[in-house]
Design a protein that fits this description.
Layout: E1 2-8, E2 14-20, E3 28-32, H1 35-50, H2 54-62, H3 65-75, H4 84-98, H5 108-119, H6 131-150, H7 178-189, H8 196-206, H9 210-214, E4 221-222, E5 227-230, E6 239-242, H10 245-255, H11 279-288, H12 298-309, H13 314-321, H14 337-352
Antiparallel strand pairs: 1-2, 2-3, 4-5, 5-6
């Protein structure tokens, strides 16, 4: 039960000291300037203790957001090696902004305030942060809160639950048209880097990400049957990548002059255990071909776009690119409209052709 003790200072000011004692639980106390506040707190605390809510809240008062981030970085991020560096940097941003606050003091409104600050800021390159970047920062913090709630029991609920994420753009679809592609491939063939052309052809013909391509090892390549096994992918699952045509022919020629001091297909010139850096040769080829607004990752968009324009379904494109769902490939749907129209026309002809 609760007891309220009235205290009077030398100046005549009053305060009210509340103690809540329930059998089997530690005593709880607080001081208020108004009697009504003291009574409200006593009633709420008794109710929370009986319902098993109070000490969860008390736990949240013991830990700061900085402690939560530090424990998450130490215990959880090592289980996500491919994302660890990026997510640590994102979590450190939140820690720098609100790390001093206890978890009980962090509200959805506070997170919204810093979400908006994040959105209005710039990247280290001096460019505005995109909504997609803000979403990634929020996702990193959200998962840390989820772990704190479900596994550490530091919180009763995550404040992120009531925070709206920025709407991401529909996604970039930049691919080379026939003329651009020919100019670019010619520039790659003329490059001083002997591997640029091969790497670009493999990227275009397989849809592999740059990291997947640069990290390839000979033991994962089957030149006889024409496929590659990617063991480390973005979604965490192994992926079989078919090899065919010009790309397979070039890779077979490349295998004849492979280096014996490394397992990498494309090792660096200085460190054999690290992949080659093609950034400068790639940029020079783009400049020679007079192609603007194009990045290495856009080679992957090219693969998806060419597949769509040649009649591949969204499900087939998702398999080639290694996406678990169709959400990421819906951006290419408009490129396969002709194929879809043909499918619908064929169905109508079969059903209603004799009418």
């Amino acid at each position: 039960m609760a007891t309220i003790e009235t205290r009077t200072t030398d100046t005549g000011d009053k305060s009210y000291r509340v103690k809540v004692r329930l059998k089997g639980y530690p005593a709880q106390s607080a001081t208020f300037e108004r009697l009504t506040d003291a009574k409200k707190w006593a009633a709420a605390t008794e109710s929370a203790i009986r319902e098993g809510r109070h000490f969860k809240t008390a736990e949240a008062k013991k830990h700061t957001l900085a402690e939560m981030v530090e424990r998450y970085v130490k215990d959880v991020l090592p289980t996500k090696p491919k994302q660890a560096d990026k997510q640590k940097q994102q979590l450190e941003w939140w820690k720098d902004k609100i790390g001093a606050y206890t978890l009980s003091d962090i509200t959805p409104a506070m997170i919204v305030q810093y979400r908006d600050e994040l959105a209005s800021g710039e990247t280290y390159r001096g460019t505005p942060r995109s909504p997609a970047t803000v979403v990634r920062y929020m996702a990193a913090l959200s998962h840390a809160f989820t772990i704190a709630v479900n596994e550490w029991q530091w919180l009763e609920d995550s404040p992120m639950r009531n925070v709206k994420k920025p709407k991401e753009s529909r996604g970039r679809v930049r691919f080379l048209d026939d003329n651009e592609r020919q100019r670019f491939l010619t520039a790659c063939q003329q490059s001083s880097n002997e591997w640029l052309y091969l790497c670009v052809i493999l990227a275009l013909s397989t849809g592999m990400r740059q990291g997947e391509l640069m990290g390839l090892k000979w033991q994962d390549v089957n030149l006889k049957d024409g496929f590659i096994i990617l063991h480390e992918t973005k979604n965490g699952e192994r992926r079989r990548v078919p090899l065919a045509g010009h790309g397979l022919e070039l890779l077979r020629e490349h295998a004849k002059i492979r280096r014996l001091d490394t397992d990498l297909l494309f090792p660096g010139t200085i460190h054999a255990d690290k992949p080659i850096d093609l950034r400068k040769p790639f940029e020079n080829a783009l400049k020679t071909a007079e192609i603007n607004d194009f990045h290495w990752h856009d080679l992957r968009h090219c693969t998806a776009s060419y597949l769509a324009m040649n009649g591949a379904s969204l499900a087939e494109i998702a398999v080639v690119l290694g996406h678990k769902t169709l959400a990421m490939v819906k951006r290419y749907a408009h490129l396969s409209d002709g194929h879809v129209s043909n499918v619908v026309a064929s169905m109508n002809a079969k059903i209603f052709g004799g009418m």
